[in-house]
Design a protein that fits this description.
It contains four helices and 15 strands. 14% of the residues lie in helices and 54% in strands.
């Protein structure tokens, strides 16, 4: 009888001690049982005013363009829409002549950032230009000073089998707390299907060198401004003979933000 009473007394004392403990200590659970916070949704918008439309070393406008993109990111996925508005269109009036839609996934493996994506290209004011689609894979190695990268594009619709690849390096230097000087240089090559589609002649191999340098100013509230200059040069004689400007320049001003 005495033993039972002592057990009851001990249990009662333990209960009293537990009742006096701070609620925070009683509520703690192992780290691996804590639910992850809700994924952050990022919305971004960006507009570039450029002296011309320049892509993969080739020009696609006679004058200035405005290129605007809007994107939403969550769960490692990013959906985006990109538009090209040409001020000096062939018909004599400004026009929205390209709309591209993309879905990308981004992840990392050691030092490497991976980003596969699917992109569609449509041309609302160019009835003779068919819409098409590409799959793309981008790899970037996060080394301390200079980051090498590679990009591979493959057309899977109108120009099926046409591919274009780039190998390059990028770097940046902090000038001030919110000001950075950045540059990237690359070499690009196209397949015979790519050059047949975009230049009208089937040949393949290394064909373009590109340099993009600019200053990035990170303003307040996620806003940024980046003036930059792009220099390209077609390396093959047969490619240079097919275009009006084999060494095009593009000056641009990018204004955007993420929220």
């Amino acid at each position: 009888m005495v033993s039972v009473q002592r057990r009851i007394a001990v249990l009662g004392a333990l209960g009293a001690v537990i009742a006096l403990l701070p609620a925070e200590l009683c509520a703690q659970v192992p780290d691996d049982l804590v639910s992850d916070p809700a994924p952050q949704v990022v919305v971004g918008v960006e507009t570039e005013l450029a002296s011309r439309y320049l892509d993969r070393g080739l020009t696609y406008s006679d004058g200035a363009v405005s290129q605007t993109s809007l994107w939403v990111s969550a769960f490692g996925l990013t959906g985006s829409i990109w538009t090209n508005y040409e001020f000096d269109a062939e018909m004599g009036t400004p026009s929205l002549n390209e709309v591209d839609i993309a879905l990308a996934w981004s992840g990392s493996l050691g030092l490497w950032d991976l980003e596969p994506s699917v992109q569609t290209f449509s041309y609302p004011e160019q009835p003779d230009v068919p819409w098409t689609a590409e799959i793309l894979l981008s790899l970037t190695c996060n080394l301390p000073v200079v980051q090498p990268y590679a990009v591979y594009r493959l057309d899977v619709k109108e120009y099926a089998g046409a591919c274009f690849g780039e190998l390059g390096v990028q770097t940046g230097w902090a000038l001030r707390e919110n000001l950075e000087l950045g540059a990237q240089a690359s070499l690009g090559w196209g397949s015979s299907e790519f050059n047949q589609a975009y230049l009208g002649k089937a040949f393949s191999g290394l064909q373009v060198a590109m340099l993009d340098a600019g200053v990035l100013w990170n303003a307040i509230g996620g806003l940024y401004v980046r003036p930059h200059l792009v220099v390209a040069a077609l390396l093959r004689r047969d490619a240079r003979e097919l275009v009006e400007d084999p060494s095009p320049l593009q000056a641009g001003l990018v204004v955007g933000g993420e929220f």
